[in-house]
Amino acid sequence: MIGALLFGLLCLLSAVLGWIDSRQGIIPDWLNLMIAGLGLAKAVTVGGPLAGLEAGCEGAAVGATFWLLRRLYFALRKIQGLGLGDVKFLAAASIWVGIAGLPMLLLVAALTALSCAGVMQLAGARLNAQSSMSFGPFLAIGLLFAAGIQQYWPCC
After folding, report:
1. φ, ψ for residue 134 (rounded to 5)?
2. pTM (two decimals)
């Protein structure tokens, strides 16, 4: 029951994240902290304090890894490919789905973003290598998908 309540709150926060990032191009820190805090609450409730510690450490490791990838991309291309809010969101999302759920999250996010770009292209928008779009809403969709799969179909 508590897991469903926390997942419902995650859905609400993800909708807010998608709205803010698509309108303003940022993911606020308070929103990432709320998602991370809910993820820690879920981990502790379901698995106890050690599970919460493990989830927090996984989130920190994922955040550090994506921060380094962000820096490497900038060093090679001289443009930002991933916003810092996205990096913080991935750290918070990893608390929810763990490192094992991260590939599913990223796959769903990338496929939905590519689908959106394809629809935009078909609708007449001019997209090129310099075009950018907020990735946060797609990451939120990926998080909800991965967390939903883990919560409601634990075999996957």
Report:
1. -65, 130
2. 0.90
